[in-house]
Amino acid sequence: MSLAHLLLRQAQRQPQAPAILDGAQPHASYLQWAARSAGLARHLRDGGLQPGDRVLLFAHNHPRYLELLWGLWWAGLVAVPVNAKLHPREVEWIAADAGAQLAFVTRDVAPDALAGVAHQVDLESMEADQLLAPVAEPAAVPITERAPDDIAWLFYTSGTTGRPKGVMLTQRNLMTMGLGYFADVDPIARGDAIVYAAPISHGAGIYAIPHLMAGARHVVPASRGVDAAELFALGRAVGPLSMFAAPTIVARLVDHAAQQGLGPELCARSFKTIVYGGAPMYAADIQRALSVMGPRFVQIYGQGETPMVGTVLSRADLKDRAHPRHAERIASVGVAQTPVRVRVTDAQGQDLPLGEVGEVLIQGDSVMAGYWGNPQATAAAIRNGWLFTGDMGALDEGGYLTLKDRSKDLIISGGSNIYPREVEEALLTAAGVAEVAVVGQPDPEWGENVVAFVVAQPGAAPTQEAADAHCLQRIARFKRPKRYVFVPELPKNNYGKVLKTELRRWLASA
Ligand code: AMP
User: Fold this and answer.
1) How far is the CA of 312 from the centre of ligand 1 (A)?
2) 410-509 homologous superfamily
3) Which atom of ligand 1 is nearest to the CA of 203?
């Protein structure tokens, strides 16, 4: 069974149904999509590519991206989608690590040829037109058989620290993730629509799989990016959209809705379900999102190593404001998703009592096969069949997991553990504060000092004194930042994750 069978099945079941939309315009029916992907598979096979060979995708979001992914799988190849915001030099490193001899690119992200990649095809070129020329009968192009443990997607970690590692995601991992969506995240009906505002190279694109399983429509915004006004209009034009969004994208949608005075009912015309995750969503922010846009949110926690599958905080949990523990629950990342078990352990891998903070471990069929060409890193990450996520958290008696911070972000000051997230949550409720990132700065006396980087709301000028007074009312004295740095914006990667390593580096050099 290959992921490509999911596409062929839809092409047989509902050939004329719209499958891919470019903005509000039709781009491909299911039959056309399958015919193009099958055509690509045939060309690549004829060109000498063998099952298991890696093919790089270094491109902005594009309707053809989906045709390429399924064309690669049709031929039994391994897709290596990389972040379009990476520097071409970084991508060359990934291409060499993956051993990719073929790359599909868009010229805006790869203006020059990538060194070391023998063949490169611009997605918008005539060569791409030819490669994706539809075959008359997709079923006549055999789908290369794949075993459950064969790699389908080589996912390079976003690399907030060190060199990115290639996470080997197998057919089974992705199939499990797809089925899990229906069990835990949201039902999908045939005519539903998913929109790819966030990069297809990451979680947003991975969600194409359940939407293909359901025969839904796949919408790529004309802007190819995140434009709140465009997304609201697109939803009104094609029907309510589902999407995966990092918390920063959610904030932009909520701001837009609030500015335009769009209440929950109008928001419902544009959005069916917004799945958020990938970075912390602070309690104050999700509360606001729920009151402005209504109950259309679901949170997931996962990581590249167990893509989109870890825990889930359901729509029902988010909406149940009457629940006595609602405040704690919305600050949590929810309960284990159906395909996995989740534990919290000490450094030796022993389970910790409920409520105690330790490392989060995950086990199940969504967990990667390992890191590409890196058995040492694999052995460090997967021990006794459990994935050590590097995230710190605590479980409660209901099975709800509350994340603290990545273990490397933990601050130890005067021998006490300080979780940056707690300080960030407190500061975010201070007047005039839009965004915060808290990191530790090495200090000879205390070990580390707490430093807060603060972005002010437009027109506001929060002060150190006011912020400090605010913290004093909310958190223990020793957790208060010793220092504030007011900045116009926080350094983030393409997926909206704050790059704390950069903040620490800046502190070290300043
Ligand atoms: P990546 O592998 O790039 O998807 O990054 C995964 C990491 O993002 C996780 O290990 C967490 O540290 C963080 N993360 C993912 N989802 C959430 C979430 N819902 N809340 C807080 N942090 C998250």
Assistant:
1) 12
2) ANL, C-terminal domain (3.30.300.30)
3) 4
Q: For residue range 255-275, what is the model confidence (pLDDT) as tens digits?
A: 999 999 999 999 999 999 999
For residues 293 and 139, what is the distance between their CA atoms, to the nearest angstrom? 43
Residues 242 and 195: their CA atoms lie apart, in Å, by 6
CATH number for the domain whose boundaries are 1-170: 3.40.50.12780
Determine the residue of 282, 301, 340, 409 to mutate for testing ligand 1's pocket, defined as the one with the most ligand atoms within 8 A of the Cβ atom.
301
3-state secondary structure of 303: strand
- Write down the pTM of the prediction: 0.89
Calculate how far, in angstroms, residue 450's C-alpha sits from the geometric centre of ligand 1.
22
Q: Are 93 and 163 within 8 A, CB to CB?
A: yes
Best of 169, 299, 303, 408 for a ligand 1 pocket test (most atoms within 8 Å of beta carbon):
303
**In the chain, domain spans:** 1-170, 338-406, 410-509
Q: Which helix (H) or strand (E) holds 403?
A: strand 401-406
Q: Whose CA is nearest to atom 4 of ligand 1?
A: 303
Q: Best mutation site among 177, 305, 403 for ligand 1, i.e. most ligand atoms within 8 A of its Cβ?
A: 403
Class of domain 338-406: mainly beta
The secondary element (H helix, E strand) that includes residue 177 is: helix 171-180
3-state secondary structure of 417: strand
Look at ligand 1, atom 21, and give the residue with the nearest C-alpha: 280
Model confidence pLDDT, tens digit, residues 69-92: 999 999 999 999 998 988 888 899
Secondary structure of 189-215 as H, E, C letters? CCCCEEECCCCCCCHHHHCHHHHHHCC
Dist. CA 502–CA 50, nearest whole Å: 40
